[in-house]
Every structure is written in C-alpha cells, then in structure tokens.
C-alpha cells in the first residue's frame, strides 16, 4: 500500500494502517508519479483532469472518487470517460464506505483478468485526444 495524504494527515494515516496491520508507505507528496503508477496495480484517487490524464498515459486502472464540490461536477464527467473506456470504476463520494471499497477491490482481485485487463484501455481512450492535438 502506498498512500499520499498530505503533510497534516501523515501521522493519522500511518497510525490507521499500523492499527490494522497493513504494511503501508504513507507520504505527504509523491515526487515521481511515473514510478508510483508503474508500481501500482490499481489507484484509488480523485478524478481531476491531470490525474485522469496521468492514469491514461500510465495505463493503470483506478477506482475514482470524484470530488463532489468540483465546479460543474467536471470530475464525475472525467471519471465517466475512464469508466466508458473500461479503465476505471466510479464510486460517488456520498456512497463511498469502507465496506463498498473493500467489496470493490475484492471483486477486482477475484476476477481472473482483474487489474491486468485495465493496463491498455486508457491508452486507447487517450489516442483520439492525441490525434486532435496534432
């Protein structure tokens, strides 16, 4: 487990993982996101434009929890694009719970293809955007 939580939450997050016997690296900020995405089997994160773009380029699947107060709910639309490309699962923050997250991750891990089928679809989704910019 690798968790970026911001400086003010480091102690609380680290304690929570230790209390539950989870071996986790808790960091205030991850400097090398390419390395972090390469290391990850799956990412749990918000769905801002930069984050979604990084996930697409890295080809890593995600469980996306859009920030509910984002202007014009753009994070939900960003997340939905990855869901449509079969590169993510969207969980609205009001529905997010420990039980739902555990169930979602367990289902992904049980699926034979599971995490690994997500390694390419996002790159396909990104291709039309690259063509428009050329």
TrEMBL record:
It comes from the Bacteria. Residues 2-110 form the Glycosyl transferase family 28 C-terminal domain. InterPro entries: Glyco_trans_28_C. One of its GO terms (molecular function) is undecaprenyldiphospho-muramoylpentapeptide beta-N-acetylglucosaminyltransferase activity. This is Glycosyl transferase family 28 C-terminal domain-containing protein. It comes from Marinobacter salarius.
């Amino acid at each position: 487990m690798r968790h970026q939580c911001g400086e003010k939450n480091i102690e609380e997050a680290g304690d929570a993982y230790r209390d539950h016997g989870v071996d986790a690296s808790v960091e205030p900020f991850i400097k090398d996101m390419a390395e972090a995405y390469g290391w990850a089997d799956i990412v749990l994160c918000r769905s801002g434009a930069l984050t979604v773009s990084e996930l697409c380029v890295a080809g890593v699947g995600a469980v996306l929890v859009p920030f509910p107060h984002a202007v014009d709910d753009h994070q939900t639309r960003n997340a939905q694009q990855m869901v449509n490309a079969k590169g993510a699962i969207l969980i609205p923050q009001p529905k997010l719970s420990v039980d739902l997250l555990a169930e979602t991750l367990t289902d992904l891990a049980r699926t034979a293809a599971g995490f690994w089928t997500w390694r390419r679809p996002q790159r396909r989704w990104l291709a039309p955007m690259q063509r428009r910019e050329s």
